[in-house]
Each structure stands twice: as C-alpha cells, then as structure tokens.
C-alpha cells in the first residue's frame, strides 16, 4: 500500500484515537443460566447429509430475539421431516443441548434456484414450511437440524441474540462472510458455474441455504466459530450473542458492553458495522479480533422480499459499482483501495497480507501481560499461522502505542514475511487484540488439525485467551494494562 493512503485516512485515524473519557462500566450481569450446569445432548451431529437437495433450508432472519417466531423455508424429497433445535456451547458430554423439536412436517420439493440479473444473485423462491417459536430459548448460537424420512439431514444456523449486552463480552457470528462464500445455486461472491470469476455474483442473498465448507448447511460456524463459543462459555463469563448483520443494523447493540469478539473469518464489513465498532472502542469497549483477514471487503445491504438487510452487495470494484455515481463512499472496492482508502489497520492494528500459508506462531514479547509465564521468546506454537495472516505495516495508518506479541517468520507467494499478533490501547481505556491468523481459534480445540493436536499449543492458546477474556470482562483493559510500543526493538517498519 502506498504512503498516499496516510493522507487519505489521517482524519479518520485521528478521530479514532482522540482522547475519550470512558464512562463508568456497567455492573457485570450475572451469567445466563450456565450451559455447563445442564446436560448436553449427544447425537446432534449430522450423520446422513444425503444427496444434494435431498433436504435443505433457510430461516427468514439471521438472528432472533428470545420469543420471536422464525419462519423456516425447507425443500426436500422426503415425504416428512422434523426440525430439532440445538443450542451450541459448553455442555457436559456434548457441544450441544436440544431445546426444541417440531412434530412431523409434510415435505415437498420447492422451486428451483432463480438467478437474478444483473448481479447474478441466487435466491430460493420458496414458500415457508413451518414456524419455529423461540419463547424460553436462552440467547446463544443454534443449529436447527432438518431430518427427513429419506434419511437426509441438514442444518440451518440461527443466532438468538442477547436483548442487552451491557456488562457482557459480545460474540459476533460472521454471517456476512459465510454468505460471501456460499455457493448454493452455483454462484458466490467468488465463483460462477462456468468457473469464470468475472461472472460471479455482485450481490448475494440470505434467501437461500448455505452450501459451504462442511456441506452441512451451517456456513463456517462449526469450523471457525464453535470452538471459541464452547471455550468462552466454559469460562462462565457474562456473554452476549449477535451476528454482524445485527452489528450493522443496531447502533445501540454494544451499549454498555465490556468487549466485542469477532471470530475466525470476519472479512466482510459494512460502513455501519465499522462505525459502530469504532465508536464502541472509543467509549472504552475492548475489542478482540481472532482471525487473520478482518475488515477487508466493503459491503452494503439492501432488503429483499423476505426482510431488511437480506441482500449483501459487493462489486469488489469502485467503478463497476453503480453506487460510485450516487453514493461514492458506499461503493464497494476493498476498504483499503482508492479512491477513499480506509485500511483495516486503523481498527485492527495489523494489516492483511497474503494466503495461503501454514507456519508456526513464534513468541516475541514474553514480558507482555498476556504472555508472561505462559510462553517464552522464540517459542514456536506449531502450525497456528494460516491460512491468511496479518502483520504490522507502518506504510499504512497504525495505532500507537502497539505491541507485537507474536512475530512469526513465513513465506507466502514466494516472498519472506512475518505474521504479527498485536495489542494496542487507546485513550478511552479500550484494549485491542488482533491474533493476525485464522488458526487462533483452532488452537482452542485440543484436536486442532492445524497444530497436529499438539498439547503445548492447546495449553498456551487456552491460557492466553483465558487471561484476555477475563481481563476484558472487567472493563476498559487499557487502563490497567497499557500497551508499551516495541516495534523499534523488533525492527518492524
């Protein structure tokens, strides 16, 4: 990125770091009825995904408040099917607890996918199949499992969001990124049936099932997010739950929150999402970014016939996006791109670099409060850098003071580089941690495939993350643990 970016975003950076007096923290709420106190439900996993289109569905919203009624749209070759709701979390004996089950529902094969011009937007123009009542459901992340009498199964994800996040650490599901990569109907924001990226979608709709990573309808939740949800619940801290669509739609979502945590792949951000998180930070709300490619794509939303904010728009180009003529600040090149570059480093501290890569996470700052007594300088945490990564890059605006905690050598695209996990603090008292790798959350799983299930990796990552979340739960962490800049000592420039 050229240094001309600095002038373009100087005012934004100044505004984000202007001295702000943090309000007194809200009293910490009691944790919700501890999931760990209730027995988990075994057998929640899909064992018979079935053939393509054997059973699949979507909900009329990405999140609901407790008590809302959610409509499900299901298409299946089964004569009958049932829906079972599992709350995902830290339960004895299982990652899930059954909270609700429907009776048998008549099945039918619904209309074929429709591709809407000129954006190649795929929708499933289906009729609702049933209503799901959420009265009495605890806030959290749910998987609604569809079970057909044809032995086919599929998930529909649903977040039951917290009515008030005052005093809570808010876990944000990155559903905009799940949707960007969703290939159901042949098109995503990356691909087309022909394989030609030029024919990809310019807008994707939540009015269709997910067809992504695990091919089980849950988006990227099980891979990038569930290990963190289980881990955080196991700590017994007050948690809040939301999607990034909620973060976009509700400027008061983070009122009184202690911290916001975005999960393993949180790439697609709207202007409102970014503004709301920045404003929270500048009120003293701590931030944790546990991925390696956040705030990279600029999106905007539009309604569909199903509801508000159901269409996610990203042309990945300023001049191709019609909004460049009518509302240029809402056109959708990457956040870092001209003519209005606003790089992610302003909020993250580090800056996206490259993929794919797989390397060790290497300790560089054992004196930092997060690492002290857990790891030592030069210690390798096997395989935790990847698939995408970030590092500090002073050619773009970077908050100071900032500490690099892990400075990990690697090679990506034939070029030697480093991945940096960072920590900075602000005048408001907020602290911001950015893992700089998508595999941090994998390290919370004792069976993490990226580390080869190395127990030393699991021990270190869980200890550091525990220390981080417990401190963040106490309020503005920068007041007790201010960052001490170490870029010069590491030769970072």
UniProtKB/TrEMBL annotation:
Q: Where is the N,N-dimethylformamidase beta subunit-like C-terminal domain?
A: 82-448
Q: Which residues, if any, are the signal sequence?
A: 1-22
Region listing for Disordered, in residue ranges: 23-45
Q: Organism's domain of life?
A: Bacteria
Q: Where is the composition biased (Pro residues)?
A: 23-34
Keyword Signal tagged: yes
Which InterPro entries does the entry mention?
A: DMFA2_C
UniProt keywords, alphabetically: Signal
A Pfam family per the record: DMFA2_C
- Regions crossing the membrane: none
Please report the name of this protein according to its UniProt entry: N,N-dimethylformamidase beta subunit-like C-terminal domain-containing protein
Organism of origin is: Amycolatopsis viridis
């Amino acid at each position: 990125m050229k240094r001309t970016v600095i002038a373009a975003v100087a005012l934004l950076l100044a505004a984000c770091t202007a001295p702000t007096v943090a309000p007194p923290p809200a009293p910490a709420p009691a944790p919700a009825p501890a999931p760990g106190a209730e027995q988990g439900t075994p057998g929640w996993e899909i064992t018979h995904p079935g053939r393509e289109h054997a059973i699949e569905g979507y909900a009329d919203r990405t999140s609901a408040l407790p008590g809302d009624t959610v409509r499900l749209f299901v298409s299946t070759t089964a004569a009958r099917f049932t829906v079972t709701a599992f709350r995902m979390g830290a339960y004895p004996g299982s990652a899930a607890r059954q909270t609700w089950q429907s009776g048998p529902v008549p099945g039918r094969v619904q209309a074929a996918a429709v591709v809407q011009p000129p954006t190649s937007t795929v929708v499933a123009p289906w009729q609702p199949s049933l209503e799901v009542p959420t009265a009495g459901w605890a806030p959290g992340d749910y998987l609604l499992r569809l079970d057909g009498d044809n032995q086919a199964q599929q998930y529909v994800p649903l977040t039951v969001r917290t009515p008030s996040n005052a005093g809570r650490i808010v876990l944000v599901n990155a559903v905009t990124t799940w949707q960007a990569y969703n290939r159901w109907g042949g098109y995503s924001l990356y691909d087309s049936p022909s394989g030609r990226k030029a024919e990809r979608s310019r807008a994707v709709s939540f009015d269709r099932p997910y067809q992504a990573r695990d091919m089980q309808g849950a988006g990227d939740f099980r891979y990038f997010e569930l290990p963190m949800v289980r881990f955080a619940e196991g700590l017994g801290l007050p948690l809040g739950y939301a999607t990034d669509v909620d973060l976009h739609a509700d400027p008061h979502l983070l009122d009184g929150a202690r911290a916001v945590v975005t999960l393993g792949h949180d790439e697609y951000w709207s202007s409102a999402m970014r503004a709301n998180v920045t404003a929270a930070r500048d009120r003293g709300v701590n931030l944790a970014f546990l991925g390696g490619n956040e705030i990279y794509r600029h999106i905007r939303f539009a309604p569909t016939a199903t509801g508000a904010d159901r269409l996610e728009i990203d042309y990945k180009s300023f001049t191709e996006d019609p909004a460049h003529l009518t509302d240029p600040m809402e056109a959708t090149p990457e956040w870092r791109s001209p003519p209005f570059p606003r790089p992610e480093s302003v909020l993250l501290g580090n800056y996206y670099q490259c993929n794919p890569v797989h390397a060790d996470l290497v300790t560089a700052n054992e004196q930092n409060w997060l690492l002290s007594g857990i790891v030592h300088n030069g210690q390798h945490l096997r395989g935790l850098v990847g698939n995408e990564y970030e590092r500090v890059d002073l050619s773009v605006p970077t908050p100071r003071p900032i500490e690099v905690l892990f400075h990990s050598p690697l090679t990506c695209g034939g070029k030697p580089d480093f991945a940096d996990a960072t920590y900075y603090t602000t005048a408001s008292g907020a602290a911001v941690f950015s893992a700089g790798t998508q595999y941090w959350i994998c390290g919370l799983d004792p069976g993490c495939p990226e580390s080869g299930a190395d127990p030393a990796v699991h021990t270190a990552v869980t200890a550091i993350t525990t220390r981080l979340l417990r401190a963040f739960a106490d309020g503005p962490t920068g007041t007790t643990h201010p960052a001490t800049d170490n870029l010069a000592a590491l030769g970072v420039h």
